[in-house]
Amino acid sequence: MSTKSGEAVNPVSNRKSGASPLPQFSDVRVLVVDDEAPARNVLALVLAQIGHRCEKAANGEEALRILEAMQTDVVISDLQMPGISGMELLAKVRQLYPHLVFLVVTGTDDIQVGIRAMQEGADDYLVKPFQVDASVVSTSLARALHKKRLEQEVENYRHHLEEMVAEQTQQLREALREVERSYEHTLEALGVAIDLRDSSTAGHSRRVFLYSIEIGKAMGGLEHELKNIAMGAWLHDIGKLAIPDAILLKPGSLTDEERQVMQRHVQIGYDLVKGIPFLSNAAEIILGHHERCDGSGYPRGLKAEEIPGGARIFAVADTFDAMTSDRPYRRALPFAASREVIERGAGKQYDAHVARVFLSTPDETWQEIRRETAAIQVFSVAAADDIQALSRLVKPGS
Fold it and tell me: Are 317 and 229 in contact (CB under 8 A)?
């Protein structure tokens, strides 16, 4: 689009999205809006004397059309006009072109109106009749431009600060994700180490971890707890790393004394992880995973709601996996038989609601988990064998 003089203009250059730094004082383009031609022409003449390019509009509607079509830096508008008043034009300009400088023109009897206009967003005001001395107009215009530049600098700084904060926040999130991934790898290695220590329970930690998550998701409303449940299930037997092999790997029944030693693994596991901030909630599951709703469990003999929710979920998952897995002293039980045991124990050993959710889940879900963990287990055992073989090769004197 071009003006009548043929100058190329950008019809959207005044828009909020196209805001740019204000030009130097001598390069400012001004739009004068006044329904009185003499006042309009006098102000345009004064502006020309101090070196500013000027456009004129007889009313608010014409002013908005010019703003839409031409690049403009400053609007100087009378307040008392028919149609769109000066105050209404100010509101429109602030909405459409918030970065423009806006001065209002008021009579000597309307100073309070001019002040109110500044409170509504005007940058300065001029008083009619205009003095022949252009310095008054020049000073007011320069003051308004300086004010607007300061506002733009503050806004630019704020935007830059927001970008910096957003960038640093994103970097922090990525760093935390990386830390979390390293934690997950560490936890996975610990779980594998626990299962490898007792070959008769190989894959147990991964299965009860997946069983617990499946039950937790089916119960609903536990979205914020699933991570803690998962970590607690994965590391529930970490305390067994401190149990002597003679007791942990004993193929027959344990004596009362040996059973007491074995039962200490929950306290040992709890003490191992309770001081790690991201595992503090999971530690409660480790401590409570052998508690039973009727108070017959250990180590504290907790009952029902006294037992952490994650531990109540885990108790069902753990019982199910123990019964459906081979042990040195017996073969794995069928799913149906295991479900019957949990159904009989609902409300006694096991939380009734957790048991109902478990029993309502089809066997295919548990079978799929066992197939997945069996495939992973083969890989984990192979990797462990490779590590052990490598360790033997690098041992001094081997």
Answer: no
Report whether 122 contacts 104 (CB < 8 A): yes
In CATH terms, 16-163 corresponds, of 3.10.25.10, 3.40.50.300, 3.90.400.10, 3.40.50.2300, to 3.40.50.2300
Q: Strand 74-78 to strand 101-106: parallel, antiparallel, or no bridges (unpaired)? A: parallel
Q: How far apart are CA 147 and CA 115, in angstroms?
A: 16
Cα distances from 190 to residues 56, 184, 288, 372, in angstroms, run 79, 10, 19, 19
The 124-127 sheet, strands edge to edge: 53-57, 29-33, 74-78, 101-106, 124-127
Domain residue spans in the chain? 16-163, 198-394
Q: Which residues contact 2 (CB under 8 A, 6 or more apart)?
A: 8, 9
CATH dotted code for 198-394: 1.10.3210.10
Note the pLDDT tens digit of each residue in 239-298. 988 888 888 888 888 899 999 999 999 999 999 888 888 888 899 999 999 999 999 999
Question: pLDDT tens digits, residue range 220-249?
Answer: 988 888 989 988 998 898 898 888 888 888
Q: What is the DSSP string of 17-39?
A: GG--PPPPGGG-EEEEE-SSHHH
Contacts of 87 (CB under 8 A, 6+ apart): 79, 117, 120
